[in-house]
Amino acid sequence: MSRLTLLSLQVLVTVVSIGAWYVLTTYPVFGHILLPPFFFSTPVDVVKQIVAWFVSGVIWKHLWVTLWESILAFVIGSIGGVLVGFWFARQPRTAAVFDPYVKMANALPRVVLAPIFTLWLGLGIWSKVALGVTLVFFIVFFNVYQGIKEVSTTVLANARMLGMNEGQLMRHVYWPSALSWMFSSLHTSVGFAVVGAVVGEYLGSAAGLGYLIQQAEGVFDVGGVFAGMFVLAAFVIVIDALVSVIEKRLLVWRPAPADARP
Amino acid sequence: MVPAVELSDVDIAFRLVGGGEYRAVTGANLKVADGEFVSIVGPTGCGKSTLLNATAGLISPVAGGVSIYGSALDGLNRRAGYLFQADALFPWKTAIENVAIGPETAGVPRQKARADALQWLSRVGLGAFGDRYPHMLSGGQRKRVGLAQVLIRDPKILLMDEPFGPLDAQTRQIMGNLLLDLWSADRKAVLFVTHDLEEAIALSDRVVIMSAGPAARIIGDWTVALQRPRDIGEIKLDAAFHALHREIWQMLKAEVVKGYAQAGAA
Q1: Interface pTM, i.e. ipTM
Q2: CB contact under 8 A, A161 and B76
Q3: Euclidean distance between CA atoms B182 and B177, whole angstroms
Q4: Radius of gyration, CA atoms only, chain A
Q5: All domains of chain A, ordered by start, with CATH?
Q6: What letter does residue B159 receive in the DSSP assignment?
Q7: Chain A: residue whose CA lies nearest to B151
Q8: Which residues of A164-198 are buried (b: 16+ CB within 10 A; e: fewer)?
Q9: For B191-244, how does the pLDDT look when each residue is reduced to its tens digit (9 = 90+)?
Q10: pTM
């Protein structure tokens, strides 16, 4: 399939689905409207709402808050995951002791923690950051742990024969291996940072995309909910594209970066 | 003169997961003189690599001793360079970084290490490939980088574990000649493990035969009195080469058959 055909087919999907949405919410079929705008809004209303947000500029504040929460959640969760991952991988005894608790904490649906974080950290950004951290931490932690455990024994033996001490092994062997595993899960962990921020906002906040959606829902403004969803989707796509660029730069030594995506 | 490597009555065993132990090598005696090229040949799974790992200090024998230039080996063998069978390059480092890592680890300033590394890469014919990552190189090129990585540290002893095993026949021959070239410029003691008898005879001063495992022993030791410098392709046409090959093969064949029978039974 050529690039052009692909692109036109992709555009066609948008046109058909939005067209169907428009027709079914606006024109009656056999006497009644199949998708009542009260429940399904209409594409026109959604676009109007999005335009209104951008024209008045209110959206920027919410985008900024969500972005900031996601970044903080990602950075803090990653640092924690790297540190604990290294610690556990190098100290199998500690890892064995904590193993059931790590599994338990990871199995817990993190959403249930949101009210507790709100209670502890208030309605500001930190309760959302905390929720994001609990999601990001485990992904990074498991990847770093695995990255260190799965260093090829031959490469390790070679490094030792080349005269490396513990510190040098850490720097030249374990660290790059752990990082490569972590980067290969970058899409997932960044995605979860955003999920943590938005879900946290949705459950209780004063700003952010999740707040925007929750507010619209509170007054049965379905158009507002859909508009918030579309802005959120665009936001995530932009972040994902940025991650792809970063990933490409960081993993040049990998045979096929495309395969690195989980 | 003190031998570069001396194995005396070396026994090597591994603990099995289900309890008990597997005796890989038993009563191995071997001397490699300074500057001597010795090959170890034996059937698959006979413990050749195990013996090499003991010489490298990566594993320690349960009985007997390894001494390096007269002093007993304790921990890693710091005077040896090891070329592994599997890919051992750091995949996240470029060819030149891979070669420079040895000197850098030893405290040589980065600039100097890089310059030396480039020189070694040229010596193995990869001067223009310094900025490639291992996955961008062919199997033969990776082995060349590995060779440069080991030799730049100027080890007195070179341990090689079927280094050319995964390569195709032509590349093996080229790599063999490259190895002989580099070796003749600066004679190190070499312990070369292979399952390929022809390769062993073509390269070595001595060929040592191991019996089939478990509890493999060294059962034969031949001196290869062929003239040097050699070309691996040409020496294989030599009548003396054939005579020696036939003689050693008689012994090796029996062990190979035994090895297969045991592998089949296991």
Answers
A1: 0.88
A2: yes
A3: 9
A4: 23
A5: 1-39 (no CATH), 41-260 (1.10.3720.10)
A6: E
A7: A162
A8: beeebbeebbbbbbbbbbbbbbbbbbbbbbbbbbb
A9: 999 988 989 999 999 999 998 878 888 888 989 888 888 888 888 888 889 999
A10: 0.80
